[in-house]
Specification:
By secondary structure, the chain is of the alpha+beta class. It is built from three helices and four strands, in the order αββαβαβ. A four-stranded mixed sheet has the order 3-2-1-4, sandwiched between helices.
């Protein structure tokens, strides 16, 4: 995918794991240093919008991250989640500066 410093197989793993653990109407973005083509390295920052309850989303997040560690190996992955009507400034930054995967 253009504009992301991950290869297609990594993007596929992330997308597949997201679909396995979150709802079909939920959305996923990658943001931060991995969408800056001038940088190198860095952690993988993911932003998720979900309509799950906080408890469901917390459980899904753990399963999602476990799945990613198994598939991608151990690396730094940060997940920011917007659950229902909660609104924080980081959400807009992630959406505006990030790349929507799903």
């Amino acid at each position: 995918m253009k504009g992301i410093r991950l290869d297609n197989s990594q993007i596929l793993v992330i997308s597949k794991a997201f679909r396995a653990h979150f709802l079909p109407e939920d959305h996923l973005w990658i943001f931060g240093s991995r969408v800056d083509l001038n940088k190198r390295g860095g952690d993988i920052d993911l932003y998720i919008e979900t309509s799950m309850s906080a408890e469901e989303a917390s459980s899904a997040r753990i399963k999602f991250l476990t799945n990613l560690e198994i598939e991608l190996g151990e690396q730094k992955i940060d997940v920011v989640m917007k659950i229902r009507d909660l609104d924080l400034p980081i959400y807009e930054v992630a959406k505006n500066e990030g790349v929507k995967l799903l």
